[in-house]
Each structure stands twice: as C-alpha cells, then as structure tokens.
Amino acid sequence: MSIGLTRILRSPALFLAIVLVVAPGALAAQPATDGRTLIRSYCSGCHLEKDGRFERISSIRMTPEGWVMTLFRMRQVHGLVISDDVEEGIVRFLSDTQGLAPSEALPGRFALERRPNAHDLDRGPEMGVMCGRCHTLARSALQRRGADEWLKLVHMHVGQWPSLEYQASGRDRPWWQIASTQLPAKLAALYPFDSAAWTEWRARPARDPAGSWVVVGHEPGGRDFYGTAEIVRDDSGGYTARYHLSDLGGTALAGESHAFLYTGYEWRGRGELGGRAAREVFALSADGSRLSGRWFDPAHAEEGGDWNAIRADAAPALLAVLPRALKAGATGVVTVIGTGLASPDALSFGAGTTARVVSRSANVLRVEVQVAAAAEPGARPVTAGTASGAGLLAIYRQIDRIDVVPGFGIARLGGGKLAPVTAQFEALAATRLPSGEFLSLGPVAAEWSALPFDEEAKRSDDPKFAGRLEGNGRYLPAGAGPNRAREFSGNNVGNLAIVARVKDGEGAIEGRSHLVVTVQRWNTPPIY
C-alpha cells in the first residue's frame, strides 16, 4: 500500500508541506533494481537514452528529496503522468545509483532534517546573491553536476522565472553575465558530478540497519528521552522500527515507524512516537553502528527532536548522562545510557564525586551522585565497567552565562489554510572555568518574556500583537492581519527580544535572543 506521496505531489497546495516519506508496500510493485526500466519507460521520451545513459538525468546526483522535487516539477510543469508506485520506484533507484556520499551531504543535512532557524552555508557574498536570495545554499550543495549541467540549470531558472535577473539583488549587477559565465564553473568546482567520495562510497559494502538499538534524544524546550528501538526488514524491502522510549520523568514514548534506506545510509521514515505523528530523517554511519538525525511533526517541521542511536550489541559504550550537569556540594540522581551496563563493575564520575547505583539494566543506570563542595569545576569522564565517555558530566559552582538558542529566530503568522510557524527557544547555561573558558551545562529551566527589540518595536507595541510566549520558551505567533487595532491596520508582525531569566542560588542571570515574527510562507518544499 502506498501512502500517497505522489498524489500529494500532484497538488501544488499540498506540496507546501511535503517531506519525503514512504510506507510498507510503497515500492513492492516496482523494486529499486527495476529502476532503469522505469526511467526508460517513463522518462526517455524527453530524456533520450544513448549508450545506457539518459540525457540530463544521468549527469546529475541528488538526495532523495532532490529527486522528489525534480519529479514534482516534471509533473507540474511538463505534464508527466505516472503512478505513485512508479514515481517512488524511480526516486529509490536514482537515490541509490545517483545520490550523494555521506560526506557530500553532511554540510547541508540541516536542510534535509528541516532544522528550524539553522545557519545556512557560507559560500561568500556572491553565492548568497546569485543563489541564496531565493532558497538556502544548502539546496545547491545537496546536488552534484558538471559545469555544462550547472549552466543548463541556470537556463532553466531564467526560463521558469523570467523576472529573476530583475529582482532585488539581481538588477544591481550584470546578473545574466555572471550566472552564465562565472557561476557554472564555480558551482562545478564546489559540487562536481564526479568525486572520490562518491566513488569510494559506492564501493563500500551495504550495511543493514536491522537489529536492536539503544536510543537517546532531546526535544528542544521539551525533554530528554531514551530507550530502545527494534528494527526489522519488512516485505516491501523497507524497515519497520518499534520504539520503547521514556523521558526522565518516566513518561512512556512508545511508537512505530516504517522507512526505507536510500543510498545505503539515508533513512526516511514515517510513523508515531508517543501518540504523535512523526517523520524521520536519519543517517546510518558508514560502518552501520550509529543512526542519528532528527524526527519532526509532519505538519510543523519546526517541532521535533534530535535522535542518536547505537547498536545494543556493540562493545560497551556510553551515549549520554542526563542531566549533564551537577553543582558542587549537591547530590543528584543522573541517568546513564549506553551498552554493557548490566554487570556491577566499577562506576566513576571523576574526581570529587562518589556514586551509588539506584537501579540498573543492560542499557540504563540510575545513579545517585554526590559532588564534594570543593570539587573543581570542569567536565568529568564517566566510566561504568569497560564503558566510558569523556566529558559526559559537568561540575559547576555557579552559572556565569545564559545563551538563548537560537540566537536569531523566525516565526510566521498563521491564518487561512496555513498554520502558524512557531519558534522554540532554549536557555543553555555555562560556567566559567579557572582557565577563563566557558563550559556548557546544557538546557536549564527559565522564566521567559518577550520585549520590544528596538524603539520602533516599542512604539508599535509589537509584543502585544505578534503573539505570545509559553512557559517552556515556545513562541506562538498571532493570526495574519490586517489588524484594525494597529497603525494603518497593519499585520501582526513583530520585532522582539526573547529574554530567559535563570535563577542560580540567591541571584539570577539573563540571556537574550532576537525573534522576528513575519508573514506567512506559501511555498515550503522538502529542501527549503
């Protein structure tokens, strides 16, 4: 059974929020090994085949999301008519045979994982103007072409968007001359079709993610979670993953997802986690021992969490200590997550600490840790038998700095068919070490407030109209305007300072971030 990915792609309105996901059976009728036949049958009418190569198609490499976007354009602009199963079979084949090596995709993974308010790639001011004014530079970085093919892409852009060279940041320079002469060679040098990384990756043996996994994750503004995942191969050639997770408070987060592995490492899944719909964009490590990435709400990609997992049968290793920091002179209970923890071997949290195991399982230790009042601040190694990890626990005496992340955020008004785009902030504490360096203590609870960012925002009373800030640092934008209560019946946009106030002993320390609440965005493709 197909989840209707291609049916969604046929509708421009629904393409606004599409992400690449598949379900069991989606490719059962057209296995990836049949992909060349599919391309010959459905694509060669326009992309001529010669010597086993298809014009244009065979000279491009892209991520699964990139191929989905290309096929969407073929349908919407050029009238291609194919079934869901055929399109998904083509995407799978092209992703496996003309994808990106992990090292090539790494710089732009934030865009694949749809991380909100992430910093875009920096390729210099010229690239920012030529490509980055319409989409992230990550979208350019997540494809590979030769100079001739990059030039053809420039021609396609001008053909599809004829006003491109006359828009802002285009008409103040010889845009076409730069785009048609200098730009293709520069892009080909940065992102060439042929690369040693891709050649090496294709020669590697395939890794199978099936098996038992130990999982640790973090949901910004929410909670840390941990537990296990059981991944099995299903009849469709994809995978079913069953999760048994919980947060530090003991709340269960059970769930199940169905996924395919593209290009030998790109995990794309859909399912539920804790009763909530989830999409998964993970990457399998080259040796098949780690699975990491991000999961998110399909309707609100800005809401999600980090995901890190190692195989449960791996050599003893530590994944995390939660919470990460303890104060000198205090006693606290921490949760240690890893592998090989069932035996009662020696346990240590470094100098100035004593530990007592409260409970133990194969993958989780709950430990009461007492920190001496005279313990030196710093990162401590943690060992549990033969499992160890450097700097997993931080010891501090006072909080010296609060960083609010993201340092700059964007939220978008809601209204009509578009829900608001929220912004999630976290307060990260740090202590100053005797060396003068700062040591991160991780997320801490804070009192949150939104203030005018500047005098104009104060005059316009932006905090009143733009939305509201929840107690966990999540900003909920207001509805889209016009608003008669505002000057000139303006929209409910705002320019805000987000303030986190953290108590530490008898005092408190503050950190600030900048939030712009802006208008709705009507086009949200899989790679923004």
Characterise this structure.
- It is a single chain.
- Helices cover 21% and strands 37% of the residues.
- It is an alpha+beta fold.
- β1 (49-50) and β2 form a beta hairpin.
- α2 (35-42) packs across α4 (84-97).
- The strands form eight sheets. Strands 5-6-7-8-9-10-11-12 form an eight-stranded antiparallel β-barrel. The chain has a four-stranded antiparallel β-sheet with strand order 13-15-18-17, with no helix packed on it.
- The chain is built from 13 helices and 30 strands.
- The radius of gyration is 25 Å and the shape is globular.
- It has five domains: 5-100, no CATH class; 105-141 and 147-191, no CATH class; 211-236 and 262-311, Lipocalin; 317-396, Sandwich (Immunoglobulin-like), CATH 2.60.40.10; 401-518, Immunoglobulins (Immunoglobulin-like), CATH 2.60.40.
Strand content: 35-45%
Q: With helices defined by DSSP (H or I, 4 residues minimum), what is the helix count? A: 13
Strand order of the largest sheet: 5-6-7-8-9-10-11-12
Q: What is CATH's topology name of the largest domain?
A: Immunoglobulin-like
Give the domain tally.
Answer: 5
| Distance between the amino and carboxyl termini | 29 Å
Radius of gyration: 25 Å
CATH class of the largest domain: Mainly Beta
For the largest beta-sheet, the strand count, sense and barrel status come to: 8 strands, antiparallel, barrel
Per DSSP E runs of 2 or more residues, the count of β-strands stands at: 30
Within CATH, the superfamily of the largest domain carries the name Immunoglobulins
Under the CATH scheme, the architecture of the largest domain is Sandwich
The helical percent reads 10-25%
Secondary-structure-based class equals alpha+beta
